[in-house]
Specification:
62% helix; globular
Length: 276
């Protein structure tokens, strides 16, 4: 008789994926990914033409965070259900990019690859710079594990280690530009809509601005130059130190105050984000 085993999802408790995505610094990495993703005109066109920045910013961010954490920490059934929903939404997101004049589709494997690589590379960069101890071998294992997450949405040709990710980013750079659409998205990301009461009576606005600025500072130098804001000498070191401080503060939160995951276990759900 075969005894059924517990469904721990595509990434089990000992996976590198759960260590990375569950780390507090991954949230800042998710915002970094958004700044980076906006530089791809055809990827950004789908977001600009099929969503409303003012009305949908926070719901979109929440949905994306829930999707990423479901795939990372949920059962295979939960992950498959969530991925199927995203694929259905992607089928209707298509059109003509006004920047390049080229057609785009959210389920285009090339665009899915871009979104995936910018996401996972941003997570990994943030958590390692934030202080999570990962060997280079473990970093490669993270990329290899995350190929499964990309394939759930229909992506193909996914780079599966640090060297392959670096080659991919170098190859795609000629397509990137800080278009007016990208700049508008970056400004909205830095200054998202908030109710007047929240802005006046809470520290939400300066707190978000500080985190968004930190996420931008974590971008590769070539991406910051693309936006025309390369930063000052020492920007990368300052960003790393600030991220380490933020991560340490998050880790000092008592376990009783940390939200529980869907499976009932305790863990930090990073506010990851990307343009899904």
């Amino acid at each position: 008789m075969i005894v059924p085993t517990e469904d721990t999802g595509y990434f089990g408790p000992e996976s590198i994926s759960r260590r990375v995505i569950g780390d507090p610094a991954a949230g800042v990495g998710g915002i970094r990914a958004l700044f980076l993703q906006a530089l791809h005109p055809r990827a950004m066109a789908g977001v600009a033409q099929h969503s409303n920045f003012a009305d949908d910013f926070w719901p979109r961010l929440r949905r994306t965070a829930e999707y990423v954490t479901t795939v990372a920490f949920g059962t295979t059934e939960e992950a498959d259900t969530a991925a199927a929903h995203v694929r259905r939404v992607h089928r209707s997101v298509r059109g003509i990019d006004e920047v390049t004049g080229l057609p785009y589709a959210a389920d285009d494997p090339d665009l899915l690859r871009w979104v995936h690589v910018t996401e996972v590379s941003s997570f990994l960069d943030a958590v390692r710079r934030g202080g999570l101890r990962l060997t280079d071998e473990e970093a490669d294992r993270f990329y290899a594990e995350q190929v499964t997450a990309a394939e759930l949405l229909g992506a193909t040709g996914i780079p599966s280690d640090r060297a392959a990710v670096a080659r991919y980013l170098a190859e795609v750079r000629p397509e990137l530009r800080a278009s007016s659409v990208a700049r508008e998205a970056a400004v909205r990301l830095a200054l998202p809509p908030m109710p007047a009461r929240v802005q006046l009576l809470t520290p939400a606005r300066p707190a978000w601005a500080a985190v968004a600025t930190l996420a931008y500072s974590l971008l590769p130098a070539w991406a910051r130059r693309c936006y025309g804001l390369p930063g000052l000498p020492g920007t990368e070191l300052a960003a790393t130190l600030a991220l380490r401080g933020l991560r340490s503060a998050a880790l000092s939160v008592p376990p009783s105050l940390v939200p529980r995951r869907q499976d009932g276990s305790q863990g930090r759900r990073a506010p990851v984000a990307q343009s899904r």
